[in-house]
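sry for the spam today, last one i promise. C-alpha cells for design, 110 residues
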C-alpha cells in the first residue's frame, strides 16, 4: 500500500483514469462518455461477480496496455456502516451483509 501511495505521489505522469457517464451497453461492451467517448469497454469485477452498469450511471474508465476497461460505477449508498456489503439491482432487489451477522434480502432479515 505504501509503495502504491509513493509511486502515485512521486509519478511524473498524472493518472489517466477518467470518470464519465455510461452511454450504452450492448454485446460489444459498455460505452462511457467523459471528455471523449470510450467504446467497447470490458468491465472489471471481483471474481464471481458480473454486472452491466445502467445507462446514466457515473463510471470509471482505466487505460490498460491493450485498451481500456470500465472499473465500475461510483457508489452513492450512505446507508451502510463501515465494513458492510450490499448487492443491488436497478430494479430494487438487494442483499445486505450486516456487521452483526444478519443478512437482509429486500429488507427482510433471513
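last one done:
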Amino acid at each position: 500500500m505504501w509503495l502504491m501511495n509513493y509511486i502515485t505521489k512521486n509519478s511524473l505522469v498524472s493518472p489517466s483514469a477518467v470518470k464519465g457517464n455510461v452511454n450504452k451497453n450492448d454485446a460489444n461492451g459498455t460505452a462511457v462518455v467523459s471528455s471523449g467517448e470510450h467504446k467497447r469497454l470490458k468491465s472489471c469485477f471481483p471474481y464471481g461477480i458480473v454486472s452491466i452498469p445502467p445507462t446514466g450511471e457515473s463510471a470509471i474508465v482505466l487505460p490498460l496496455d491493450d485498451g481500456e476497461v470500465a472499473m465500475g460505477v461510483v457508489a452513492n449508498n450512505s446507508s451502510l456502516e463501515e465494513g458492510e456489503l450490499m448487492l443491488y439491482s436497478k430494479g430494487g432487489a438487494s442483499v445486505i451483509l450486516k456487521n452483526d451477522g444478519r443478512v437482509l434480502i429486500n429488507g427482510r432479515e433471513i
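The CA atoms of residues 17 and 62 lie 5 Å apart. ok im logging off now
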